[in-house]
Amino acid sequence: MNDLHGGLSRRDFLKLSGAGLLGLLLPGRALSLLPDPGLQGRITSGLLWAYDEPSNKARKIKMYWRDLVVPITSTALDDDASLYNRVWYETADRAYLYSGWVQPVRTVLNTPYYGFFPADGLLGEVTVPFTDAHEKADKASRVAYRMYYETTHWLMETVVGADGEAWYRVFDDKWKKFYFAPAKHLRLVPDEELSPLSPDVPVEKKRVEVQLDNQLMLAYEENRLVYAARVASGAIFRVGTYTTPTGTFMTYHKRPTRHMAAGDLAASGFDLPGVPWVLYITESGISFHGTYWHNDFGRPRSHGCINLSPAAAKWLFRWTSPTVDPRAQFAYESKGTVVNIVK
Predict the structure, then answer these.
(1) DSSP assigned state of 196
(2) Do 277 and 152 meet the contact criterion of CB atoms below 8 Å apart?
(3) Number of neighbours of residue 250 by Cβ within 10 angstroms
(4) What is the pLDDT of residue 27?
(5) Between the CA of residue 13 and those of 18, 22, 161, 218, 229, what are the distances in Å?
(6) What are phi and psi of 19, to 5 degrees?
(7) Are 130 and 147 in contact (CB under 8 A)?
(8) 250-300 pLDDT tens trace
(9) Among candidates 7, 9, 11, 18, which has minimal Cα distance to 216?
(10) Which of 45, 169, 174, 210 has its CA 20 to 30 A from that of 300?
(11) Are the beta carbons of 289 and 297 closer than 8 angstroms?
């Protein structure tokens, strides 16, 4: 197996992996258990119990439900070192929530943009825990979709809504429809955030390795580890088996946003608008992408794709080939960065 330490001792690497903290490992970047001020958590499961200690063996004290947003005051680790994810979030009332079912979010309001929009639109990112996209620029109109924090969307123009506020007209790339979302809830992604990473390194010197047994994504430059992240790969569900294929692939087709939908929602189907930073590696649709419907990386739980946190997916999107122009909705080329998926 390839060296996966990149300067870390194996003991430190395994400690970070077991703690569920292996999200960003860049040279010179410190990891901390303490969240930044203003960090919040959005509940992603239908129901979630809070405990009086960071363990599911502790006493249940409160129940939360999907899309409830709570302040995160601190983080803690479960004492059981055998767990793949030991991280728990502490709330203001000293309750503990399992981090796998809590999306870290913020509430940041933006100044609406009234400038020029190109034909393919401008890429926008949601900066609040969630906002509703309506069929008209009117809060009284039907809600088409809920748009979640760090999802990305194509914004086509700014309009003044029935409430006198600015709304963006949003293009849905799956159904080829348009919806409207409050402009203050989205920011335009600046071009510099989409610029390539390590552009001086030749494409043949870059490679990605996914270790399914370890649920890890590793990025190498000339056999030097430069980035690592926990993943969630294909899983076995009651209604079917959705495995992530092994073998050698490449990131030939990339999109900064994609509405992903398939199957019966009453069974194992899904309908996920604004999936960010998508890197396809097969014609059947297997991809790396950012994930906002869970925060439970380190175990298989996808329909075959390789789930990453939005931050990790964005890094990979910028680091791999082909490069996507900031004004383009996708890039599709015959070659890309090599991806090796192993057990």
Answers:
(1) P
(2) yes
(3) 22
(4) 33
(5) 9, 8, 51, 13, 11
(6) -80, -10
(7) yes
(8) 999 999 999 999 755 445 567 999 999 999 999 999 999 999 999 999 999
(9) 18
(10) 174
(11) no
> Positive or negative, the Cα torsion across 295, 17, 227, 4?
negative
Q: Which two tokens stand for residue 263?
A: 């199957």
State which H helix or E strand residue 19 sits in.
helix 10-19
DSSP annotation string for 119-167: TT-EEEEE-SSEEEEESSSSTTSPEEEEEETT-EEEEEEEEE-TTSSEE
Nearest-angstrom CA–CA distance, 278 and 293:
15
Report yes or no: 63 and 48 within 8 Å, Cβ to Cβ: yes
The CA-to-CA distance between both ends of the chain, in Å, stands at: 10
Question: In a 3-state reduction of DSSP, which class is residue 209?
Answer: strand
| pTM of the complete model beyond 0.85 | yes
How many angstroms from the chain centroid is the CA of residue 33?
A: 20
333: Cβ–Cβ under 8 A, 6 or more apart, which residues?
Answer: 252, 253, 321, 322
Residue with tokens 């649920």: 215
> Distance between CA atoms of 214 and 17, rounded to whole angstroms?
9
Q: What angle do CA 133, 137, 141 make, to 5 degrees?
A: 70
**What DSSP character marks residue 59?**
-
Question: For the segment 23-41, what is each residue's pLDDT rounded down to a tens digit?
Answer: 433 333 333 455 577 999 9
Which residues contact residue 46 at a Cβ distance below 8 angstroms, ignoring those fewer than 6 apart? 65, 66
Residue with tokens 């303490």: 34
**For residue 169, what are its two tokens?**
């007209």
Cα 303 to the center of its chain, rounded Å: 15
Residues 6 or more apart whose CB falls under 8 angstroms from that of 149 comprise 42, 103, 105, 106, 126, 127, 128, 129, 130, 292
Q: What percent of the chain has pLDDT over 70?
A: 87
Residue 72 β-bridge partners: 91
What is the token pair recorded at 56?
């599911």
